Amino acid sequence: MGSRRTLILIGAIVIGGLAAFLTMNYVKGVESESADKNQMVTVLVAAGPVAKGSPADEALASQSIRTAQRRRSELPASAVVRPEDISGQVAAVDFGGGEVITSMMFLPVQELTGSKGSSIDEGNVAITIMVEPDAGVAGLIQPGDSINIMALAPVAPGGEGTRTESLSKAAPDASTPWTLGQPYVYAFQDVKVLGVGKNLGTPVAAPATAPGAEPAPAAAPATDTNLITVQIPADQAPLLISLRGAGLYLTLNRPDYEAAPIPFVSSLPSFSGEEGRSPYPAASAEAVAPAGSAGATGQ
Length: 299
Known about the structure:
- 21% of the residues lie in helices and 20% in strands.
- The chain has 299 residues and is of the alpha+beta class.
- The protein folds into two domains: 40-107, Antifreeze-like/N-acetylneuraminic acid synthase C-terminal domain (Type Iii Antifreeze Protein Isoform Hplc 12, Alpha-Beta Complex); 116-268, no CATH class.
- Mean pLDDT is 79; it is low at 159-163, 203-208 and 291-299.
- Residues 41-107 form the SAF domain.
């Protein structure tokens, strides 16, 4: 009889402990879920009115759209958490202020208007040129870049003008001059790239992520890097077309590049390598010289 009571008591204790354990886990789960819902997340919000079609970059610069803290439970599934996620796009709707920005509220301008011509600056036209990979900076050019366009510029033997059939230079021993190829000229400088292949720089949608989570990188679309579409004033487009057979060569510029006169070279000057110096200006060499070196001290 005593052993039965003992077993019943032990069973009651076990059941009570199990019930307490389950109750504790349930309470912890509820508390965790509540804490998760009340977690503050940084998202983009409209701080004031923004008209449909307004560039996101302008709205961000003017603080009409800014980052703010919101509870996770109050956010739509597609809330935008980073300014760069809408950079280069335009507002697809009118904002009155206070809205949490979602991915569908900003779109590429061509999607909003239905015309790819919307990406061309006023007074310009789009035109496509074809270059070989080595002449197109090995495919490193992207929409939005600034480039220079060089063209082959020889004249027929006996032709007038300063341009020559090939670049030559007197040999050190006064023998037959060196001939090292045909001359090129800078035909256009600081030209804006609109597209590479069929890619106009339209962002590729990345997989949706919950607000506060690290967004997955978007996959870049495949492009034909031999086809470069640029914008250029309408009156200069015929000049560019006339250079189709002139062995076009491109250079990729820094974002702060400024066009400047670059004279046509009709004869070979001394190469920097011949003179034992770097091709970069001395000021640039000093700027990157290690502290204490001869370049930095002027010794």
